[in-house]
């Protein structure tokens, strides 16, 4: 293997994360919560080691570590650290790096759960948060307070309007740690660490696991930084399940072929919707008319499997969701089924009306996670559903 040129991402997805399984092609499932020690000295060594895989599964687990190794390789990172969910990854990372008196810079256009955490627990703990517009050049760096800002948080592409953060700008920020929630892209869609960003975060529940049967979060970055976050995460208790890690590692094996098909279908849908008289707007960075298309072409390896579009009002949105027959009405993303949802009443329902307006979420906005159905079937389904929404 040493004489070969660097492996492609698609090949890495097949070869990565194969420790702790011997010669088995399938990952081994280590379901144990606890391992026996060989006496006092060995027990002490295991208890005081960083991320020892044969001690106690809240600290580390061999199956989970295989998943972490795979993500680290795909991200080009020294290490990765898994959590029980994407929000577990966000919460543990923020609280590991910040304390009372700290300052965070974050974009407004965030998943509602992340917003709720930054506006609720963080404020209650005395952590100040400044929100900026992700699409405004220099907004992140301009909001940094030297000596006080501990963390800069971006979500790119953002949920649900697919706005992009400039990764070059984020990577050039000095002082605070920088974090990009890269869930919508997966490691095959963009590489934040290559731009100098400190941490790349995913809700691996979504595209990475890819089958709607695992709940996981994961961050990737430098080993020393992740070890510091792990020391807090052990106390936070957002422990990943080895069963979910096994399913997610299985998802990694097919990540390249899945996202290739989903990207092709997403672009076809976006093109169709952009020309459809029933739509008043389409948000997909792969369209030339997207306001950040040039940035998307520079930093995205794939334009993405998620898009959103707007119909005139909530009534039309409800009619569309009622009418789809191939797509399904559900709030997750990244799985084999095409899912549609109404962010204002589902993923971002916790936001006030003013907050929804500030983040660009209208009553007519519909988010689409494109699945693995034949593209023509999706196009036909959206055509008939839009016709019924317009007639209604």
- The Rg value, from CA coordinates, equals 21 Å
**Topology-level CATH name of the largest domain:** Aspartate Aminotransferase, domain 2
CATH class of the largest domain: Alpha Beta
* N→C terminal distance: 61 Å
Query: Total number of β-strand segments?
Result: 12
CATH superfamily of the largest domain: Type I PLP-dependent aspartate aminotransferase-like (Major domain)
* Structural domain tally: 2
Main features:
392 residues, alpha/beta, Aspartate Aminotransferase, domain 2, Aspartate Aminotransferase, domain 1, 2 domains
Task: Describe the 3D structure.
This protein folds into two domains: 9-30 and 61-253, Aspartate Aminotransferase, domain 2 (3-Layer(aba) Sandwich), CATH 3.40.640; 257-391, Aspartate Aminotransferase, domain 1, CATH 3.90.1150.10. α3 runs parallel beside α10, α4 (86-97) packs across α9 and α11 (255-274) runs parallel beside α15 (375-391). The model has no long low-confidence stretch (mean pLDDT 96). By secondary structure, the chain is an alpha/beta fold. β4, α8 and β5 (177-181) form a beta-alpha-beta unit. It has helices at 9-15, 40-48, 62-75, 86-97, 112-119, 121-124, 139-143, 167-172, 223-236, 242-253, 255-274, 293-299, 314-323, 353-358, 375-391; strands at residues 79-83, 103-107, 128-132, 149-155, 177-181, 199-203, 217-221, 281-283, 306-310, 328-329, 339-341, 365-369. The chain contains 15 helices and twelve strands. A seven-stranded mixed β-sheet has the order 1-7-6-5-4-2-3, sandwiched between helices. The termini are far apart.
């Amino acid at each position: 293997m040493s004489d070969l040129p660097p492996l492609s991402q698609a090949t890495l997805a097949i070869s990565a994360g194969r420790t702790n399984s011997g010669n088995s092609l399938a990952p081994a499932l280590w379901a144990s919560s606890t391992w026996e020690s060989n006496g006092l000295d060995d027990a002490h060594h295991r208890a005081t080691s960083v991320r020892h895989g044969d001690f106690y599964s809240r600290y580390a687990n061999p199956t989970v570590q295989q998943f972490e190794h795979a993500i680290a390789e795909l991200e080009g990172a020294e290490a990765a650290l898994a959590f029980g969910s994407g929000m577990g990854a966000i919460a543990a990372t923020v609280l590991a790096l910040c304390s009372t008196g700290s300052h965070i810079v974050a974009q407004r256009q965030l998943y509602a759960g992340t917003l709720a955490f930054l506006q609720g627990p963080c404020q209650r703990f005395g952590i100040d948060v400044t929100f900026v517009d992700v699409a405004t050049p220099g907004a992140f760096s301009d909001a940094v307070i030297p000596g006080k800002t501990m963390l800069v948080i971006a979500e790119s592409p953002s949920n649900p309007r697919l706005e992009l953060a400039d990764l070059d700008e984020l990577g050039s920020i000095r002082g605070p740690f920088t974090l990009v929630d890269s869930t919508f892209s997966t490691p095959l869609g963009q590489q934040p660490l290559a731009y100098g960003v400190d941490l790349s975060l995913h809700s691996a529940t979504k595209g990475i696991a890819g089958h709607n049967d695992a709940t996981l979060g994961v961050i990737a970055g430098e080993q020393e930084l992740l070890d510091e976050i792990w020391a807090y995460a052990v106390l936070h208790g957002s422990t990943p399940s080895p069963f979910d890690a096994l399913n997610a590692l299985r998802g990694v094996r097919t990540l390249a072929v899945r996202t290739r098909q989903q990207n092709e279908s997403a672009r076809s849908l976006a093109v169709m919707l952009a020309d459809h008289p029933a739509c008043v707007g389409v948000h997909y960075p792969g369209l030339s008319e997207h306001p950040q298309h040039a940035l998307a072409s520079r930093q995205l390896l794939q334009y993405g499997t998620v898009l959103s579009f707007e119909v005139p009002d909530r009534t039309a949105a409800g009619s569309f969701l009622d009418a789809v027959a191939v797509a399904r009405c559900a709030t997750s993303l990244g799985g084999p089924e095409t899912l549609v949802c109404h962010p204002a009443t589902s993923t971002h329902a916790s936001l006030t009306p003013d907050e929804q307006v500030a983040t660009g979420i209208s009553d007519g906005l519909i988010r689409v996670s494109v699945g693995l159905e034949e593209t023509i079937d999706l196009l036909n389904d959206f055509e008939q559903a839009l016709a019924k929404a317009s007639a209604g």
